[in-house]
Amino acid sequence: xxxxxxxxxxxxxxxxxxxxxxxxxxxxxxxxxxxxxxxxxxxxxxxxxxxxxxxxxxxxxxxxxxxxxxxxxxxxxxxxxxxxx
Length: 85
Hints:
Strand order of the largest sheet: 1-2-3
Structural class: alpha+beta
Mean pLDDT: 88
Radius of gyration: 15 Å
CATH topology: GMP Synthetase, Chain A, domain 3
Largest sheet: 3 strands, antiparallel
Number of helices: 3
Distance between the termini: 10 Å
Number of domains: 1
Number of strands: 3
Helix content: 25-40%
CATH architecture: 2-Layer Sandwich
């Protein structure tokens, strides 16, 4: 089972399950790709209700601020667990 984080979307309690996480550190200006040179983080997550069931209705309520906040929560969670998800 993937790690889960308790949070709220539009004031509604929910669970966020990280499905995929990859962090590419910056490799410097000599890389073939500007993405690799600057580094990037790729995160995919699922929104679940409090019982752990997929909640597409709640996912539709997410704002861009919610998405950014949730991705920051996931990244902080992964870093606090030394990259183990």
